[in-house]
Amino acid sequence: MKLKLLALAILAPAIASAQTPNFSLTGKIGTLNKPAKVYFDYMDNGVSHEDSAVVVNGTFKFSGTISGNVTTRIALDHTGEGKPHAIYAPNNDAIYIYFGKEKVQITSNDSLNNAKITGSKVYDEFQAYNKQIGGTIMDLTKAVNIDFAKGTPEQQKDTAYIKAVDTRYRKNIAARSEKQFLFAKNNPNSYFGLIALSEAAGTRVDAAKIEPVFNALNASLRNSDMGKELAERIASGSLTAIGTAAPAFTQNDVNGKPVSLADLKGKIVLVEFWASWCAPCRAGNPNLVKQYQLYKDKGFEILSVSLDNVKDKWVAAIEKDGLPWLHVSDLKGWNNAVGRLYGVRAVPQSFLVGRDGKIIGNTLRDETLNKKLEELMKN
Question: How far apart are CA 163 and CA 143, in angstroms?
Answer without folding.
Answer: 16
